Amino acid sequence: MSGSVHTAPPDAGPCVRGCTIPDLLYEAADAYQNPRALNQPTEEGWVPMSLDRFRQRAEETALGLRALGLDRGARVALLLESDVHYCVVDMGCLIGGFIDVPLYLSSAPEQMRYVVDHAEAEVLVVTNPKRLEQAADLLPDLPRVETVILCDPEGRADGPDLPDRVTLKTLEAVQQLGRADVEDRSAAIDGLRAQIDPDDLATIIYTSGTTGRPKGVMLSHENISSNAITSIAEIGDFETGPEGEVIISFLPLTHVFARMLQYAYLRRGVSIYFVHPDDLVDALPKVRPTVFASVPRVLEKVYAGIRKKVMGMQGIQKRIGEWGLEIAQKYDMTQPNPPFYALKHAAADRLVFQKWRAALGGRVKYVVVGGAALQPDLANILAAAGVTTLQGYGLTETSPVISYTRPQRNKPGTVGEPLPGVEVKIAEDGEILTRGPHVMQGYYKAPDETDAVLEEGWFRTGDIGEFDEEGYLKITDRKKALFKLSTGKYVMPQPIENQMGSDPLVDNAVVVGNDRKFCAALLFPAEDQVRAQANEWGLNAPQDFEDLLADPDIVDAYRTVVQEANEGMEPWSTVKRFALIPDELTVESDLLTPTLKIRRPEVRTAYTDEIEALYHDEPMGSQTESRAVFVEV
Question: The pTM is what?
Answer without folding.
Answer: 0.88
